[in-house]
């Protein structure tokens, strides 16, 4: 698996941690913790373990992947039928938001003009 790009990292975490399919925040967190290139920005104790709660300096947010980019990659996988959510509430919520978005963007929507 190619971990040199973000797509490979997202795929790896979606495979390894099925619960990340239901939460983009969990997916983001798993990528930051799983890959040393990013977890070096997490605050650590003297023994090298991660401090609880996990924390990152605000300026370090420029050095790690953006949550929006990770969510976009997950959505692209979902569009192709891969790594779909497993929680019925999440599935229903995503369907509802998609329907609302499509209705808002519809050419027949007068509020769009």
Would you spell out the secondary-structure blueprint of this structure?
Layout: H1 6-16, H2 24-34, H3 36-39, H4 67-79, H5 88-105
Helix pairs in contact: 1-2, 2-4
Provide the descriptors you would attach to this structure in a database record:
single chain, 113 residues
Q: Calculate the terminal CA-CA distance, rounded to whole Å.
A: 46 Å
Mean pLDDT: 91
By secondary-structure content and strand pairing, the structural class works out as: mainly alpha
The major β-sheet equals: none
How much of the sequence lies in strands comes to under 5%
For the record, the count of structural domains works out to: 1
Helix content estimate: 40-55%
Morphology call: elongated
Which parts are unreliable, with pLDDT below 50 for 5 consecutive residues or more? none
Note the run of SSEs as H and E.
Answer: HHHHH
Radius of gyration: 17 Å
Give the beta-strand count. 0
Give the number of helices. Answer: 5
Structure notes:
Helix 1 (6-16) crosses helix 2 and helix 2 packs across helix 4. The mean pLDDT is 91. The chain has helices at 6-16, 24-34, 36-39, 67-79, 88-105. The chain is elongated, with a radius of gyration of 17 Å. It is mainly α and 113 residues long. It has one domain (6-112). It contains 5 helices and no strands.
């Amino acid at each position: 698996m190619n971990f040199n790009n973000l797509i490979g990292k997202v795929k790896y975490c979606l495979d390894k941690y099925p619960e990340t399919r239901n939460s983009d925040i969990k997916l983001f967190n798993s990528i930051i913790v799983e890959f040393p290139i990013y977890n070096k920005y997490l605050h650590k104790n003297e023994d090298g373990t991660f401090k609880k709660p996990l924390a990152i300096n605000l300026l370090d947010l420029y050095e790690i992947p953006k949550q929006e980019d990770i969510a976009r990659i997950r959505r692209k996988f979902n569009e192709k039928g891969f790594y779909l959510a497993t929680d019925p509430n999440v599935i229903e919520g995503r369907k509802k938001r998609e329907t609302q978005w499509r209705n808002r963007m519809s050419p027949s929507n007068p509020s769009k003009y």
